[in-house]
C-alpha cells in the first residue's frame, strides 16, 4: 500500500499527537506564563510533525520557520516586556474555571459528533509527492490575488505594530514633558 | 496489518486541540496566555485543512489555504502583541480582569 509500513506511520502519528495534546494541556494549565510559552513551542513542533506525516512538507517547514522561528520569539518577547505580571495568578476564579471546562467539553462533543455524522468524500490512498512545486504554481496562478493581499496584510501588520509601539513611546515622552511643566495627566492606577 | 491512520483520527486530534484552545482563552487572565490559546485554535484549524488536502479530492489547495492561515496568524500575533504592550505601558498590567477602562 504505502512506502512506509503503516505500523510505523501509526506510531509516529500517536507520538506527535500525544506530544501536541500533552504540551497544549501544559500551555493552558501551567501557572508560570514563561513555562506556558515553552510548552507552546513543543505544541507547534508536534503540529509540524503532523503536517509532515500528512505529506505536507512545505507547510511543515513553513510552520517551523514562521511559528517556531517567528511567532514564538514574539510571544517570548511579549512575556518578557510585560515582566512584572508573569508568575502571579493567571487563572480566573473557580467559577470561570468550571465554565471554561464545560465550554471546552461541549465544543469537543459538537465537533466529535459532526466528524462522525458527515459522510466525507474520501478518496483512496494518495502517495505523498513533493508539494512545493504545485503550491508555487497555484500561488502564481489561481491564488495570485490572495497571495498579493497577504503581502499587503503583512506590510500593514508590520507598520501597524511599529506604529502602536512608537506612538505610545511618544505619548509617554509628551506626558513626561507635561509633568515637568507641572500639569501632569492624572493616573488613577500605579 | 495494523489499522492505518484515517481522516477521522486527524480530525479528532484537531478537535481536541481546538477544545484545549477554547479552555485556555476562556480561563486565562493574562492577555498573552489568551493569545497562546488563540494560537492553539488556529493550529487546530490548520491541521484540518492539511488533513482534507491529503484525504479528499481537494488536492494541494488545502495546503495553500493552510499557508494563508499561517501568514494571517503571524500578522495577528504581531498586532495583538503590539496592542498588549501598548496597554501594558499605560496601565502597567495585562490582567484582563483589570482592563475595564472603557466600561460604561
Q: Overview of this structure, please?
A:
With 190 residues, chain A is mainly alpha-helical. Chain A has two domains: 7-128, NADH-ubiquinone/plastoquinone oxidoreductase chain 6, subunit NuoJ (Four Helix Bundle (Hemerythrin (Met), subunit A)), CATH 1.20.120.1200; 143-190. Helices cover 74% and strands 0% of the residues of chain A. Chain A has six helices and no strands. Chain A has helices at residues 6-29, 33-53, 57-81, 94-117, 132-140, 144-180. The longest helix of chain A has 37 residues, at 144-180. The radius of gyration of chain A is 23 Å and the shape is extended. With 104 residues, chain B is mainly α. The radius of gyration of chain B is 18 Å and the shape is elongated. Chain B is built from three helices and no strands. Chain B has helices at residues 7-27, 31-55, 61-91. Classes of the chains: A mainly alpha (190), B mainly alpha (104). At the A-B interface, α1, α2, α3, α4 and α5 of A face α1, α2 and α3 of B.
Short description:
The complex is a heterodimer of chains A (190) and B (104). Chain A is mostly helical and 190 residues long.
Rg of chain B from C-alpha positions? 18 Å
What percentage of residues of chain A falls in helices of 4 or more residues? over 70%
The helix tally of chain B amounts to: 3
Envelope shape of chain B: elongated
Q: Please give the largest β-sheet of chain B.
A: none
Count of individual beta strands of chain B: 0
Basic shape of chain A: extended
**Total domains of chain A, how many?**
2
User: Which residues of chain A form runs of ≥5 with pLDDT under 50?
Assistant: 183-190
Strand residue percentage of chain B: under 5%
Helix-and-strand structural type of chain A: mainly alpha
**H-E order of chain B:** HHH
